[in-house]
Each structure stands twice: as structure tokens, then as C-alpha cells.
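Researcher: Going back to the complex we discussed earlier. I've cleaned up the inputs and rechecked each line, so this should be the final set. Can you rerun the prediction on the complete assembly and write out the structure?
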Amino acid sequence: DTAVSQTPKYLVTQMGNDKSIKCEQNLGHDTMYWYKQDSKKFLKIMFSYNNKELIINETVPNRFSPKSPDKAHLNLHINSLELGDSAVYFCASSQTGTGDLGELFFGEGSRLTVL
Amino acid sequence: GENVEQHPSTLSVQEGDSAVIKCTYSDSASNYFPWYKQELGKGPQLIIDIRSNVGEKKDQRIAVTLNKTAKHFSLHITETQPEDSAVYFCAASPWGAQKLVFGQGTRLTINP
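Model: Rerun complete. Updated structure for the full complex:
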């Protein structure tokens, strides 16, 4: 069974379109994340949700809207796509203790290409 | 906020030799330092981590050292094998921040 699964794996779309990436984890973790990996492989956090509540928003443009219907799911919707949004988006989950961060489990990534 | 610098960006070693990757961090409140390995087309996967109350940790061929005073930590891989070829990321997490700040990554190539 895949621990953190995200769909689609590949997404090619035109500038200006709206697209969504879905993520699900079956590890029973309470915290989920979206990370963006650019063409230089740099990994940067975008959002973090703990038990469906947004706890981190790293100054991501308003065009990006995460939604967590329950603690096992964290979806990412992107409006009005721009060329600079092209990247690999990784979903991750972890079980967070009081103050201490645990291991992050990453999905396999969703490669978004904006033409 | 936390800033993590990682060097080198690329590293090529002969099979059987050792590889060392170094990272520095800026926030003295950081207390958790994991290392992730990312293989082609996959998500990063934790290979070893260390918390600030420990100076060194070893797991078979992999070891991590932490110098809190100098704010740097290093990954050591001994007896390298072709399957060690991947991109390696260091990261740091300030206590209570509930997030990882990653270094820029090191592409490690093991030459047979």
C-alpha cells in the first residue's frame, strides 16, 4: 500500500488554466504538507495543515489554495496558472509531537508543466 | 527565519570511497537535522536524522555529525556503492516550527 499518494503524476496545461493536485495519506498522520521543487531541485515548503487546520502558509500567491477535507487528505488548487508555476509538487505527511517534528513521508511528486 | 546552506552541489566519488556532504544553518533554535535521499522520479526519503542533544549518530555505512556551536552538520557515507547515487538533502527544523527548511541538495554520483 502506498503511504502518501498524489495524483496526477504528470500535468501539462496552458497558461491561465486552473488545475488541482490531490493527496492522500494512509499513515494516520496528523500533519500534511505541500512542497514545491523547482528546476534546480530546491525544495521549499508552501503549506502545512494539522488536523485540517492551516498552520503554515509560506507567502504563497493567493492563486494557490490548499484544501483539507479531513486529516488524511490535502489537495492543492491552482488558479490562473503561470509559466513560473512549472515545478514538481510534493505532498508529505508526518506525525507531530509537542514541539518536535517527526519524519516526513513524501509522495512521488506531481510534475506540473505550464505552456 | 532559518536558512540552510549545503555544499557541494555535485560530488563524484569512486565506488568504495567515502563521501561527505556539509550543511550550515542559521537559526540557533533549530534542534532537528534530518538527511533525505531523493532518487530519480521519486520523493525524498529519510535516511538518517539527529537531534541537537546528540553529537553523532551512525547507521551502518551512514553517519551524521552535528556541531551546535559552529551550526553545521555533515553526512558521511563510507564504502560507497552505485545505489548510493542520488540527490541528498540536509534540512533543519527550529523547535516548534513544525516544518523542515531544506538545503539546496547535493547530486552524488558513484563511479564504478
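Model: Worth noting: The CA atoms of residues 43 and 56 of chain B lie 26 Å apart.
Researcher: Good, that matches what I expected from the previous run.
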